Each structure stands twice: as C-alpha cells, then as structure tokens.
Give the backbone structure.
Amino acid sequence: MTTMTAREKAIQESFSLRMDEAELLNCMRCGFCLPSCPTYLETGLDESQSPRGRIALMKAVHDGLIAPDDDVEKSLNLCLGCRACEPVCPAGVKYGHLLEEARDIFNDHNEHSAPVKAVRKTVFEGLFPHQNRMEHAVTLLGIYQRSGLQNATRKLGFMKLFPESMQAMERALPAVPKKRDMKNRPRSFSALAEKTATVAFFSGCLMDTMFLETNNATIKLLQKAGCDIVIPDGQNCCGALHGHSGEKDGAKNLAKRNIDAFEKTNADYIITNAGGCGAFLIDYDHLLKDDPEYADRAKAFTAKMKDITQILFELDFHQRIELKMEPQTITYQDSCHLRNVMNTHIAPRALMNAIDGANYREMENADSCCGSAGIYNIVESDMSMQILDHKMEKAKATEAHTIVTANPGCLLQMKLGIEREGLSDKVRAVHIVDLLLEACGELTH
Amino acid sequence: MISDYIKTKFTAIVGAENVDVSPAGRLVYSYDATPNFQSMPDAVIAPRNTKEVSQIVNVCREEKIPIVPRGSGTNLAAGTVPSEGGIVLLFKHMNQILEIDEENLTVTVQPGVVTLNMINAVEKRGLFYPPDPSSMKISTIGGNINENSGGLRGLKYGVTRDYVMALEAVLPNGDIIRTGGKLAKDVAGYDLTRLLTGSEGTLAVITEATLKLIPMPETKQTMLALYQSMDAAAKSVSEIIAAKIIPATLEFLDRPTLKAVEDFAKIGLPTDVEAVLLIEQDGPAEIVARDMQKIADICTREQAVSVQIAATEAEALALTSARRAALSALARLKPTTILEDATVPRSEIANMVKAINEIAAKHNVTIATFGHAGDGNLHPTCPTDARDHDEMERVEAAFADIFAKAIELGGTITGEHGVGMMKAPYLEWKMGPEGIAIMKAIKQSFDPDNIMNPGKIFAKETRKRLVISQ
C-alpha cells in the first residue's frame, strides 16, 4: 500500500463510507461485460477501461487496497456511462449506480481550475435548472444562426480556434426555433382519435428549446394515437447531466421538482422522447431512495415512465395509422440509455419497419454507443471521435439515406459524424418522432 | 515491486507503452473470475511477438521473476491470479488469425484471439470448431489451450485437447519450440502438444496454435424437456446414452439455477419444475429428426412433464445462451458464488446429483447444480457470503465431501476448469502421491527455476484450504 495524499485519503474514506459494498461484491468478475464495453474494445482490450476493471478499482479503493490516484479517476472519466454492460450482466450488477456514486465522490474532492469551475457553475446551477434561461441561451444561438453571424464566423475561420469536434459540432447544430415559438405553446392537447390514455409529457430542457419541433411532433403523434396530453408547469431538466457529472445534489433537487410537477397530473403515463432523460427519470427511485419524503413518490413516478416509441408501439399506432414515405433506406442507432436502462429497442424497430417505402436495414453494432454520451464528446473528445468514426463505418455499410436516433445527444453526434464524413448532401440524421410524423404525411421542419 | 533496472530491461524489449507498473494498471490484472482470490502483480507486460516473449522469459529467468500468462481472465480456479507477484503477460497484441487452411482443415491463430471471433471466422467458411466454453465470447484461445477448456458440445465432440494439432511455445529457458503439425497421424516422440495443452501456464508460454476443424454440421435442433424430479431427468440422460444416441449437447439445470437464469434472461424458462434437460443434436436433417424423435420418446417415457423443440434458430440460441449464463446468473443470489466442476462417469450422474443434495443438507448450505449431464461434468454452485466465516467453513467442508464422492464414483476433481490454486489441495486425492511425484518431475525438468505460473496445480499442503484464501 503506497502512502496517500490528504486528498486521496479523504476520497478513500468516502469510498468506504458511501460505496454500496453489497453491489461491489455482486460483481463476480466473470467478464461477461467485456465484449459489450466500447472503451474496452477501443483501447485494444485494456482491462482498466472495462466495467469489470472499473468495479475492481472502485472496490480496491473502497477496501483501501490502492489509492484513488489519477489513474483511477482517469479510468472512471473515460467511461461513457452507456451502461451496455448492465443488460449483459447475468449477476445484475447496477454498474451505473456505482459509477455515479464514485464520480460524485471524486467531484466532491476535486479542485477544478477557475475556468472549469465557472463553466460547471454556469451549466449546472445557472443554466439547465432554469427553463427560461435555457430559452434565452438557445435564443442567442438562434440569433447567431439567423443574423448572418454564423456565416461571418465561418468565413473568418473563428471556429478553427476550437477543437475539431467543436468545429464540426457547430456546423451540425440544428436551426433553432424562435423565442416566441418556445413560449407560446399550449399546456394541454386533446386526442385526435378514440381516446386510449392520458399522458403527461416530459418536454425536457434541451428538447423543448433546441429541438422544439421534435417535441411538437411528439405531441402530434400522441394525439393521433388517441392520447390526451398535459405538459405540466414547473417541470425542469431531468438532472441527467448533473448526475453523470458528479453533481448528485443538483440532480436530486431537479428530481424533486419534477416529481412535484407530475404528481398533480394523475396521468396514466409519463412520456419522454429523449432516451438519455428517460433513463435518468426512470432511476429517480434509486436517486431518492434515502429521502423519506420522496422515496415512495419517486417509485410511483418511475412506474409511469415510458418512451414515446414504447407507448406508440403498445397503442398499436403503427397498425392503425398508415405510414409511408419516399423510397429510401433507413437505419437506426440505439440510444444507449433507451436500450440498456429503459429496455426499449423492439418498439422503435417495429415502428420503422411499418413504414411503407422505407427499407429498414439494421446497422451492425447499432446497440453500441456512438460516443455522444452527454458532455463526453466535449470532455473526452479524442475517444468520442474514435468511437464515432468506427460507428460511421458501420453506418455507411448499411448505405442508408436516413440515420434515425431517439435521443438529442445521439442525433447531434450522428449529424456530426455525417459532417465529418462529408456526407451532408447524401445522408441525413433524424429523430424517430420526426421520421414518423413525416411518414404520416406531415412535414415537420 | 520490480526495480527500475528490470523495468528498463522490459521497456527495451516491448516499449514503454507495453509495460505498466502503476497501481491501477496492476490492480486490474490481480484477479480472474475465481471468488476470493486476488494478488497484485509487479508489472503487466504486453509483448508483440514470439521473439519478445522469449526475451521477456530470459529476463524473468535471470531475475527469478514469476510469469503469469493471461488471456481474458475468465479462469474459475484462480489459475491466472498472480499469487506470487511477478509479471502478468498479456496477449492483446498477439490476437491474429494467421491462416484458415481449407485443404488441411486447420486454423492457425495467435493466443490472444477471442474464441468466438475465431469460431465465427471459420464458420463463415463452412467449417466448425466445436469446443465452446460458456465464456467463449470473452475467453481467448490461448487461455482455452492452457486450461484444456470444455463446453456444451463436449459430449459428442470432445474438448480443446482434441482439436490442438500443433503449438509454438517459449520454454522457461527462452527456447522457442514447435510441436506437432497439420498431421492426422504423428508419433514422432513424446506428445508435447498434449502435455502443454492443459498445463495451466506452468510449463511454457504458448505463442501460436494450429487447431483442427471439421465440416459444419448441416442442421441442428434444440429441445427442452421438463421434469418434476431430478432423478427422472438423470435417468433420461442414462437412457439416451444407453439407446446409442450421442447428442451434441445434453445439459441440465436444477430449479434454483433455472430461476436465477430466468431472472436474467427473461426468455420464459419454466421456474415451477425441478429440473430441465437442454438437448441439441446436429448433423444431416433426417438423422437429426430421427434422433430428436427417439430422445423425445425416451424423455416422455421417463416422466418428462413436457418436451418441446425450439421453433426457430433464435429461440434455440436464446436457450443455449441462457444456459451459458447460469454461473454468473447464480451470482445474483448472494455476494459470493463458489463453483466447482466435479465430474463422474456419465453412468453415475444420478448418483452424484443425489449425493450433492445430501451433502448440501448435511452441511446446511445451499447448492444449486447445473452442468453437462451428458458427459458427467457437473457444476455444483454455492451462493454464499465470503464475510460469513462460519458458513464459508461449512461450504469448504461440503465441497471436500463432493470431491471425495466424485473420486469414489470413479470421477475427478475438475472436468474442465483446471486445478489452479483452488483445487490444488485436492489433486493428490485424484492422482495419489506417485502421480504428483511424476508431475512434479516433469515441471522440474521444464522449469527448474519455478518461474512459470508458480503456486498453481501443486499445493504446498494437500487438503488444507479450498475456498478461503488470504
């Protein structure tokens, strides 16, 4: 045992105190997770970049066997958090929960540099928890895009000052809606077919600003499927960005406000159209398990969670509505959290296969992460781009004209991949609800 | 810890990027899939070719540094735990399929190839490599050869040993040898290929292998037979073999195993029956159909409550995949999962299963059993908690009884997992002191400095400890 610095000692003590020992022991080290882990494969089978290795590191720190040094932190940081290791784990280890707790401990003891601290504070406290500020921020982006500033910036080569992934990301960002469109949407909608269910729509922070049109499309699809829809006031960001970045307290506050907002609706289901948010929302019961006031309420909340594709599938939307489009080949990139945490992967495929004219071709490794992973593509840019480039090889092999996704992060990453491959004139990336509305004969964007 | 001087020597051979002495880098190679065994290596080294392996071995011999060759670390007998420190040798760079020879029906590979990747590659050419350990999606060929791994198809097709035709290996003195060849017949001298296969990394470092392939069977059918009594299932197994039918796979799972597997796989396995037989036959369509009918008749006659043939290939694959997950699925039940692979002549299966249940009751422990019923290879598995020392002692006593019973029935202490550290204290029960003596003499002549995976196979003391380790 090497000697530890004061900081390492403090982290080690937190690991002993806070990490769930039973869950750490639950990993029996069979290695069944290894082939599912993108970073294990991309690093040429480096065990320290595998779920089994990361759990072993967490346990070793918990047991005081090794110091929580930079290598340990690096290993945890390079994890995408895609949780592909969970459905393949026969022992049922809740890896995501272990990772979140470990990252939270490191974050509690981290002295971020001043600029990083400022950015984190702005993002995690100033921006995402406040829907009106999200609207402002996205409005600014809209002004940037529409005013000609975007063109000017590009001509001046200003973006060359940023990493390559940021440059391509800037090009890949969707045209954002105007502020009045974000503000003026009604809070409830009636079914446009025989009524099947009452649903409450979790409209999300980013989805309801940058991807407003996709949210509007979601509402239309739900109406066609016979749903009465409410969009409760007082809902806010799901907290996933916070939770995955070691800001657990921030995440808990957001979770409580969302539970407050949705409890009042008495809806049959709570619907999301972003796999990343959905997976975090469906985990609220775990996040708040030690909160006496909210533990049971969180369970009731998560029991109602469903992805838009799942509810459409269950309501037989694809059998009842005629879906057709111009002949084209389409393929699908799973949202990791939709697949691995919400266990939703049959429904989106069934819906796409029901579209007349669309030739659905399954992409090899569609169930493996695209490298977007929240803010991973910014903070771990190199690995993210390596994963994306390998992903695009598989996407190109399908010869698809349309790459479909079910989560805003994946959608942006796919757009970025198309940009990087220089395929913008031949291939498009769309959210599945936009594709479905298009197949209903209604153009969205 | 290794000195800077030695580290420099290793670095000169494989480059700095392939030598890791960091605590985190060493920690993740301090274990395999065996519960309660962990020990830090002093360095982790990833050679890029046979020559580098030989140079590393030379340094280790001169400096008396233990060498633990490691594939993917799925070993179940602590065979790849660096119990005496030293270096862990990784084969992540030596992971190529070098040749698929369709005229001689062989495949030549480097040790780091993942088993299933190789199986998929040869199946694309209509060829078949039968050994299919449950970990084949993860394990490497090098690991399979060193452990002489078995699998679900062992009954009809044999184990890894039956498919290794030639090896390249680095001896502890640094020499590079080649054994065997692409030869159906070869009696030139001692059969070193067979000696190295299953030697658990204690004699040499295997750096290349040529494996036998056979033509892909034309068709395959999968059947599930359900029973309300373990005896009836075991009796069916004996009757099937007695009827001169050799199925490709003949697996059984008891009720606790079924429940754990279904909790994980959620494919609709029955959890209200006492035992299940999973049976596969492959070959020409008409023969498969005939065999499956005969097997179904036998199962029904022996009181199976239901006999069903999988309707689709996907359904069949779901069943066999679920079976492969049995061990890890049992890990859901308790924090620690102790597994053994006592093996008996297949005619004794019913007796052995009965004995295991009696032994579990006697020692007041829970033992779930699944395994390769057709070849007598059982996997009694005990969900327990390493922190409960009283229970762990009872578990140890129960497994000692199971080994004793297996040997009494003409069986062995390990059918396919290897001796490693976990079963070393029991090896003498099977081999006798004379058997141990000649094995030690072989080890001594290969590896006089005892640098190759020391502490494995040979116990310091017989029958001392089994599952409890420091």
Summary: Chain A has a mean pLDDT of 89.
